[in-house]
Specification:
Elements (H helix, E strand, L loop, with lengths): L10 H16 L31 E4 L2 E4 L4 E3 L12 H10 L8 H16 L10 H11 L10 E2 L7 E12 L3 E12 L4 E12 L7 H23 L5 E6 L2 H7 L8 H13 L4 E5 L6 H6 L3 H5 L2 H5 L2 H4 L7 E2 L8 H5 L14 H11 L3 H19 L10 H19 L1 H8 L15 E3 L6 E3 L10 H4 L5
Parallel strand pairs: 5-8, 8-9
Antiparallel strand pairs: 1-2, 2-3, 3-4, 5-6, 6-7, 9-10, 11-12
Helix pairs in contact: 2-3, 5-6, 5-7, 14-15
């Protein structure tokens, strides 16, 4: 035996749904009874029997109480009247408050913060709480009956809504952080209705963490919850606005992740991915409904909090109003800059090729040894650039490359003017030592070669046109 929960936009559709459900389950030998709805049916009571033994019918719905005549949700709580408490009693009292949507978030947060304090005091499960701590808990739970005064409208949209805006708010303190979501609907007559939809909170880690980091963690929590809500609602939402009162967190969100250190980088990557289609904005702490949520509220204060149940003015009146600020692109705050990766300055000291060769020549006057040194230098440079590494003795090609480079470098050092003239196809200077040697530039290697009668020899080109060095 179980209950069936459903809904319709009007009573006529509800009556059709009732008939179809009854006929369907009747085929399986099951009979539906104890019908209840918000409103008055159009048929006669005999044809449409409802469970209305009293003026107000209260039905338990998924752990919450639903009043059919007022179409509101409420809570039924049990107060622990013990004079002394243990940590087990505290946890049991918290678990009795069933709040799947987080509508009682500020009160639950206050209770969770108290429970974390017990862990920090290292109190055993069966150990009685110290008198001062027990008195704090007694004061908190004796206010539980005030939660029963809270009436939460089941239907949170406007009856003739033309547009729907989802507003999410986040905030953090040193004790807890929380995200809260509101649904704003606008009617044809520009009548705006804003109602609390859900919230989720977490106590701050025992290990100390800066408030800006907690604020960023809350932004990630808000992004995750908003995506879950969108998938669950299945509504055509016209705009999604996300708010935080932390300008540092907003600056991080608008910073390229690769510029940030690991902790912030990992969360910014997730936030940017989850909220790429949303709009992040800044809101003042005074107008942020998640602000009291992160610190906790007692039951009586929660029941009277207009900001918590309906959201701030910027949600109810105008999301682009003066209460919202431009999203900061960067920040000069120390907390922001501390999470940026430290730029390393690399100083490159370069020596020209001539000085380098002079150094090598000073080391050794052995030509073949000098060529081998240059050959291994070129191999090292090549291995750094290539996936295929060369090993073993130098090849003939590597010897030739090193020798050509050495000759060319020396020519540039001692025959710079001649090279410039030959490249312009002009004669060399009359005072040049190469004037009577018919010098020319070898286009294949860029070396200066000389001519003369040897050009008529039958030897190869390198022997006939010896590079001048």
């Amino acid at each position: 035996m179980d209950d069936c929960l459903s809904g319709s936009s009007d009573l006529n559709e509800f009556e059709i749904l009732k008939t179809e459900l009854s006929e369907l389950l009747q085929k399986g030998g099951m009979h539906l009874h104890k019908w209840c709805c918000s409103g008055t049916p159009t048929r006669e009571p005999q044809a449409f029997p409802l469970d209305r033994n009293s003026e107000e019918v209260t039905v338990k719905t998924l752990g919450m109480l639903w009043g059919s005549s007022t179409d509101t949700f409420s809570y039924k709580v049990t107060v622990n009247t013990n004079s002394s408490f243990t940590k087990r009693d505290v946890l049991s009292d918290i678990a009795r408050i069933y709040d799947p949507l987080g509508l009682l978030g500020p009160f639950i947060t206050k209770a969770k913060i108290f429970m974390q304090q017990l862990w920090l005091l290292k109190i055993d499960w069966h150990e009685k709480l110290p008198p001062d701590i027990a008195e704090q808990w007694k004061t908190l739970i004796t206010s539980l009956p005030d939660l029963e005064l809270i009436k939460i409208p089941r239907f949170i949209l406007h009856n003739s809504a033309t547009s729907i805006v989802l507003c999410g708010f986040s905030d953090a303190s040193s004790k807890a952080f929380r995200a809260v979501i509101y649904l704003q609907s606008v009617s044809i007559s520009i009548d705006i209705t804003s109602r609390l939809l859900c919230s989720k909170s977490r106590v701050a880690p025992i290990k100390p963490m800066t408030v800006p980091r907690l604020e960023l963690s809350t932004c990630l929590l808000l992004s995750q919850i908003v995506n879950k809500v969108i998938r669950a609602l299945k509504l055509n939402i016209d705009s999604i606005q996300l708010f935080t009162d932390s300008s540092i967190a907003l600056s991080w969100i608008n910073t390229s992740p690769y510029l940030l250190k690991t902790f912030v980088c990992n969360r910014v990557v997730q936030i940017q991915e989850l909220s790429k289609d949303f709009h992040w904005k800044h809101v003042s702490s005074k107008s942020n409904p998640a602000d009291p949520l992160s610190r906790g509220l007692e039951a009586k204060a929660l029941a009277a909090s207009e900001l918590w149940w309906k959201g701030p003015d910027c949600s109810r009146i105008n999301l682009s109003g003066s209460q919202t600020l431009q999203t900061p692109k960067s920040s000069t705050d120390k907390f922001y800059s501390d999470e940026l990766k430290t730029p390393y300055k690399v100083t490159l000291e370069s020596n020209n090729d001539s000085n380098f060769l002079d150094t090598l020549i000073d080391i050794t006057n052995n030509f073949h040894k000098l060529i081998r040194i240059l050959g291994f230098i070129f191999r090292f440079r090549s291995n750094c650039k290539s996936l295929i590494k060369s090993t073993g003795p130098l090849t003939q090609e590597e010897y030739q490359k090193a020798e050509t480079h050495l000759i060319k470098s020396l020519q540039v050092k001692y025959f710079h003017a001649e090279i410039s003239a030959l490249k312009k196809e002009s004669p060399v200077s009359p005072t040049s030592k190469l004037k009577f040697l018919n010098p020319f530039i070898d286009p294949s290697e860029g070396l200066i070669r000389v001519g003369g009668r040897i050009s008529h020899s039958k030897d190869n080109f390198n022997k006939k046109k010896i590079p001048n060095h």
